[in-house]
Structures are given as structure tokens and as C-alpha cells.
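Replying to the earlier thread about multi-chain prediction with a worked example.

Input:
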Amino acid sequence: MPKKASTLEELYEDHYKVMIKIAKGWLGNDYWAEEVVQETFCIAQKQLEKVLTHEKPRAWLMKTLKHKIQESCRIRDQEVRMLVTLDFDVPSEDKAEERLYPSLIAEVRDALPEELWYVLRRHVLEGATHLEIAKELDITVSSSQKRLERAKKRLRKLLGGKK
Amino acid sequence: MKNKTSVRGFLEELSTEQLLDLLWAEYESPEDADEDLVLRIMEVIEERDELMEGLPTTEQGWEDFQKYFNTPDGEDCSPDPTEELPGPVHRRSRPVKRLLTAALIAAMLILLGMAAVQAFGADVFGVIARWTDETFHFTAVTEPELKLEPEPENENISPENEAICLAVQEAMNKCGITSIPIPTWYPKGSELADEIKIFENRINRGFRYSLTNGDNDYIVVIVQHYYGTGVDYARVFEKDSFDVEEYVKDDWEFYIMSNLDSTSVTWSDGQTILKVSSNTSLEIMKNIINSMGDYI
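Result:
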């Protein structure tokens, strides 16, 4: 019987590979897959003792990964809907890049500092993951997420529209 | 055993896409997922190497995890300040408007004594805090700090907090830093989430650690001692548009700020920066600050 992991790094070595394969299979995107897997391990780190002493740590990780993927998809959908409903009433299933008008894009760009516009454009309009953005800007994933939140808050305040 | 072999054989006959669909369906079903089935599906997927094409290896993934994810909340990877222009210097205390929801987690605030900084040949300067709606940072000034009072001994650390204090003390010793004040008050159930991480680079040295109470609450503490001209090379902290509150305890001036769902408390003497970040309440953070001044 293989030795049970006793540290986060050992847990990572034991389960990362299969988790990222599954995440990629479900999401169809390498960066997105890595991001959700890494975030799953962040959660595992916060509950490390619980995971390490769990009867089936892999099952725990897998369940958490699945929730993370669902949450990630939901947030992406919300972000796209948020952007398109700022000034225009469009159906929620439409993608931002198909329905955003040039004047709205210009208005959004003018309303935001460059660093916030960059994250919003890359993530919401171009579909980049926070991990990709973090590598481009040499910041952490958490910083990228917070910049997007600040961009959204500022847009809601300045441009109005629905949440 | 025969059943397991049959199931395994069946699963191996399925395409990867079918296995993934089966796995997803297991989680989507109204009943709890069959963990044994999930694990067997995962075993089969694990053996299919072609799926790893284009994906980071385990070693690369672990590197990314350490660099981009396993950092204190809101911290920037870049060692240099951003191009953000500093805002006006704020000296008056203002109330922090944001009301934070949180469970109880312990925070540790570590201060480095002046004596420790002097021992490494650094000049001790004052520091000014500057912030805008988006960022916060310290700037060293040329007015020297003159206080070099000896640190008082603490005699009243509670037994349940002693382990944490001793671990931090050990980290400080390894960093060559002495005279550490350690709070004696921690909310019940607080413990170190992992080993204390010690670091050193061309700009600074120090350590960081996080505490948890077993739920999704956290407190992260970083102590960074900067070489040379000190905190001018320090990172710029990101914050939201709520005001920074200045909070004085004894002769120490702390700055309390928020960044969406987290609160940070920071302090500097011009050479060393302390930062504590947490999703705990403002009241808890102030209690921790108020407990400062007890030493091991």
C-alpha cells in the first residue's frame, strides 16, 4: 500500500497529475485547468490536517475540484453578463465579445485605470485565466482577482447598470 | 476482487471523454457520488499519459503554486514598487467605514526592535506612510529614530499560545532578528497552518506564516527586513478605496486598511515592515494590536 501523504507537497505529488488531466478534460483549456487545480490545493492547504487525515484524500480533492470548476464557470458567466448589462439590455446567454458595442468598450476603457482595464479586458473579453494574467504581469493570482473585482465595482458605480 | 476487476476492465474500455462524462455525472446525481467508482475512474484516467500534453508537469505545477498562489492574500510577486503615484500623507485618525464579517482567527504582530536593526549596520530612519485609493506604501525619511529602549520580559503568555510564540521566536532567531514582541492573546483554536517560511533575497530577508482555526478563516503575517536604504524598495500594498486608519499602541503607529474581503495591519520603522492580513473582524485585529508589548 503506498505511503499516505504527510505534507501538502506530498499530496500535490500524489494527486496533481490526475486532477489537472480531469480539469482539462472538463474545461478544455490548459490555463483554466491549472488555475482551478491550484485553487483546489489552496483550499487543501487551509484545511491541510483534515485532508491528510481523511480516509480518501483523493476523493476529497476531487470533490473540491469539481465545486471549484462549477464556481469558476458561474463567476465567468456572471462577469460576462455584468459587462453586457451595464448599459444595454442583452440576453444573458450572449457572449460579451459578440454583443459589446465599440462605444461601450471605449467608455469602459476610459473609466478604468490601465492596470484594471488590462485585467478586465484579458479576463472577461478575451477569456484569459487569472493565472495567465498573473504570469503576464508578474503578480499573484489573488492580485489579479482583486483587480478585476475593483474594476467591476468601479464600473457599477460609474456607469450604472444591473449586477 | 472479481467485481473490481470487471469494473476496472469496463472502465478501461471507455474513451477518455466517456470517463470524464461518467465522472461528472457521478457528481451531478442527486445522491452522493460513489467514491469508490470515482477513484477507479481516476485511476484509469491517471494512466492515460496523452492527456498531459500541453499541461505543466507536477514539478512545474508546484513551482507555479508557490509563486502565484501560495502567497499572502493581495501580495504582489514583483519585488519593486508599482508606478502608482503616492497620495497625500494622512496623519489624522479616521474611522474605517467597512464593516467586516469574520470568524475568529488569531493574528500575530511581530515587531523588530531597533537594537536588532542596528546590529546589522543599518541606519534607522523614520517612515512616512502614503496611500491612494488603490495602493499603500512606506517611504523612509531622513529623521532618525532615537528610541532604543530594552524590551520588557513577558511573564504571562497563556499555555495554549506558547507553542505559536516559540515557533515564531525560533524563526526570528534563524533570521538573526532579536527582541521580538509576541502577542499573548489568540482566539481559541488558533494554530499554525504550516511551517513558518523563512526567506532571503537581494532586497530583504524575513519570514511569513499563516494561522487558521480549521475553517476558511486565516491570518497571514509577514516580516520583511530591508537592506541598504530600507523600505523605499518595499512593495506597494494593494487596497480598496476605503480610508486607511491610523492606530497607535504605546509608541507604535499601525495602519489599518482593507482590500475587499480582507483587512491588513501594517507597521514600519523605516527598515522593517510588518504586515498582518486576515479575513477576520476589525475588532479582532485591534485586540491583537492592543496585546502588543508582551515579549518572550
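Chain B touches chain A through 47 residues (CB under 8 Å).

Feel free to reuse this layout for your own posts.
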